[in-house]
Amino acid sequence: MKIFLFLIIIFASSVENIFTQSIKKEMQLGGDESDFIFQVSSIALDGEGNIYIADKLNFSILKFGENGVFKKLYKGIRGQGPGEFSFELDLIRIVNDKLYITQKLTPDILVFDKELTYQKKLKFGYQILDIGVIQNRIFVLSPDSISNIPLLFLNDQGEFDNKYEKKPVERHQSYWEQYKSIAFDKNGSFVIASMYEDKIEKWNSLTQRAWSKQFLKGQQIVYFNKGPRKGFPNVKECFCYRDIAQDTKGNIYVLGGSQSKNPLRDIYVISQSGNLKFVFTLPDDTHFLFIDHNNKLYSRGPEGGICRYEIKIDDKSLN
C-alpha cells in the first residue's frame, strides 16, 4: 500500500465559466507483494469504509481498510464449483452487507459476505452490463431487457421483483443501443450513459425522463459492417462513454471513451439539471469510476492499482 499527497492543478471549462480545479491524490492501493493487484475490474465500499476490489485477471477479491491497509484476500479458482469463477471478474456491489459479484460473459451473480466467504450463486439468466443499488434493492442493467430502459429488478434471493414487473413492450432500440452504464441517487432517480452513442439521460422514474443530453456532437453508433447485418460497433469511432457515477450533492461524473479529447481520462461533470459544469482529466487511463459517501473519487492508477482522489468543485459553478 502506498500513500501519496500531492496536488494536481487542472483546467476545465463550463458553458458559462472557466474554472481552475484541483484534484488531490490521497491514496494508492496495490504495489506491495502482499496486496498486488493485477487488473481492477470494479470496486465497492461498505458502511464502515472498507474497500473491496474485484481483480479480474487474478480471479480474486481483495479487502482493504478505509486507510488503505490490506486486510484479506479471496484467491479464486477457475472452475464451475461453489465459489469458483468460470470467467474473469467484472462488477462488485454491496447490498445488505453482502458482496454481489458478476463475471464476463456469464448471467450469474456470486454472493459473498464481508469476510469474503462464499454464500451462494444467483442464476440470473440475462447478460449483465451494470448493477445499481438503491435502498437495498438490486437493479440490473441488461441488453436483454424488453424495454427501452434496460432495467430488471431483483430481490436479495436473485428472484425477479414482481412489484416492478413490467408488461412487454416493443423495443425501439437495437441491441447495441442497450449497452449503457447506470448510476442512482439517494432518491431513486437514475442517470444512464450510452456506451456507443452520444446520449446521457436522467430518469426520475421508469416512465418519467427528466432530460436527455449530448456532449460529443451527437455521435451515433458506427458499425464495422455497413450492410443489413451490421455486426459489432466500431469502438474507435463511436465509443462515447465508459462509466458513470454520482456524488452526494447530485453532481454526475461521466468517463469519456474514444471520442473524448483524452480517452478514458476525461471526466464530464454534469449538474442535476443536465448542464455541463466542466471537464477534468485524470492522470491515468481508467475503465471505471467510483465515488464514495465522502465524495472521494476512485479510479485506476499506475501499474494497475487504484487511486483515491479528493476533488474540489467550485460551488459557484453552473447548477
Explain this structure.
The two termini are 38 Å apart. This protein has one helix and 24 strands. It is 1% helix and 43% strand. The strands form six sheets. A five-stranded antiparallel sheet has the order 1-2-24-23-22, with no helix packed on it. It has a four-stranded antiparallel sheet with strand order 3-4-5-6, with no helix packed on it. It has a single domain, classed as TolB, C-terminal domain (Neuraminidase, 6 Propeller), CATH 2.120.10. By secondary structure, it is an all-beta fold. The longest helix has 4 residues, at 235-238. It is globular.
Question: Which key features would you list for this structure?
Answer:
319 residues, mainly beta, Neuraminidase, 5-stranded antiparallel sheet, 4-stranded antiparallel sheet, 1% helix, disordered N terminus
Topology:
Blueprint: E1 6-13, E2 18-29, E3 40-45, E4 51-55, E5 60-64, E6 70-75, E7 89-95, E8 98-103, E9 108-113, E10 118-123, E11 130-134, E12 137-141, E13 151-154, E14 180-184, E15 190-194, E16 200-203, E17 209-213, H1 235-238, E18 241-246, E19 252-256, E20 266-270, E21 276-281, E22 290-291, E23 296-300, E24 306-312
Antiparallel strand pairs: 1-2, 2-24, 3-4, 4-5, 5-6, 7-8, 8-9, 9-10, 11-12, 12-13, 14-15, 15-16, 16-17, 18-19, 19-20, 20-21, 22-23, 23-24
- Largest beta sheet: strand ordering: 1-2-24-23-22
Per DSSP, the total helix count is 1
Mean pLDDT: 78
CATH level-4 homologous superfamily: TolB, C-terminal domain
The amount of helix comes to under 10%
Return the CATH architecture: 6 Propeller
Q: What is the 3D form?
A: globular
Distance between the termini: 38 Å
As for the number of domains, it is 1
Low-confidence stretches: 1-20, 162-172
**Secondary-structure element string:** EEEEEEEEEEEEEEEEEHEEEEEEE
Largest sheet: 5 strands, antiparallel
Structural class: mainly beta
